[in-house]
Amino acid sequence: MKAVLFEHFREPPSIRNVPDPTPSTDGVVIKVEATGLCRSDWHGWMGHDSDIVLPHVPGHELAGTIQAVGRQVTQWRVGDRVTVPFVGGCGHCHECNSGNHQVCEEQFQPGFTAWGSFAEYVGIDYADTNLVRLPDELDFATAASLGCRFVTSFRAIVDQARVLPGEWVAVHGCGGVGLSAIMIATAMGANVIAVDITNDKLDFARELGAVHTVNGAREDVVQAVRELTKGGVHVSIDALGHPSTCFNSIANLRRRGRHVQVGLMLGDHATPKIPMDKVIAHELVILGSHGMQAFRYKALMDMLETGKLAPQKLIRKRLSLEDAPAALMLMDRFDGTGISVIDRF
């Protein structure tokens, strides 16, 4: 099969012919019909993820059709249309038994712990625990766009922050994660403030439901958010993953507010400055959001079916597999709006 492969971190990936995967006893092989291009893939290529063993095929936001099934798989058949969370639970550890597959102690992550979906085929372990069936009317590109960004934002807004109608929500960073969070928080009835440093992204955020925008390149973010909300937001999301956005996201909360860290904090950014005096004095809550369990996709799919969520609006570029190496290396530039999906192999 054709795949994007890199043999050394920070050196250009290339298109290679590599052996087709075979299913593990509890896994499947999926013919990839679409796969998202995410900044997490860039972090992997940069060498920020200790799970990656070289040589490596990246890619973790995927949708496709099952081509082969392991002998212990009971719930899936060849031809089924599926997607999968980017964090797969083993199904038997303490966290999985408690329903928290997204923080599984023995988690499987395509594109990180195993070869990923920048390829014609990908192997997925723990299939009965993790695969998600796609409705016939949902196209593969939209399904792939759910990937890690949309579902992680869904969990952040709905399950972790537990956003309520009428609450103020600030979203710091209007890339794929942030725009997803804006759309989801708006659908939950919140009043959303979008924060970024480029006007085109802020304009797009308004199209997706933001009621106010703050340009961090021109304004004091914390002061602006506090003024707009008369005291601070109830919920704040760092959707970028940078020391400055993390700090601002916590600092712009009102008393007893909830901060959710969604943007990855890796490498030099792994230990950001936190206004701990305010965390204590104002009883602030700091949470993380790391993927979403397969069984929680039902609520998300229902909101897609009724039109309350439209992740396809976030797709701004469609690429071929041959485009992927160059696009991957440029993910640190934050160019353009929305997300990119590879749908030609």
Q: What descriptors fit this protein?
A:
345 residues; 2 domains; Rossmann fold; alpha/beta; 6-stranded parallel β-sheet; 11 helices; Quinone Oxidoreductase, Chain A, domain 1
Task: Describe the structure in your own words.
This protein is an alpha/beta fold. The protein folds into two domains: 2-147 and 292-344, Quinone Oxidoreductase, Chain A, domain 1 (Alpha-Beta Complex); 150-288, 3-Layer(aba) Sandwich (Rossmann fold), CATH 3.40.50. Helix content is 28%, strand content 24%. It has eleven helices and 15 strands. Strands 3, 4, 5, 6, 7, 14 and 15 form a seven-stranded mixed beta sheet that branches. Strands 10-9-8-11-12-13 form a six-stranded parallel beta sheet, with helices on both faces. Strands 1-2 form a two-stranded antiparallel ribbon. Strand 11 (233-238), helix 8 and strand 12 (253-261) form a beta-alpha-beta unit. The chain starts with a strand and ends with a strand. The relative contact order is 0.16. The mean pLDDT is 95. Keywords: Metal-binding, Oxidoreductase, Zinc. Its cofactor is Zn(2+). It comes from Pseudaminobacter soli (ex Li et al. 2025). Residues 10-342 form the Enoyl reductase (ER) domain. It holds the Pfam family ADH_N.
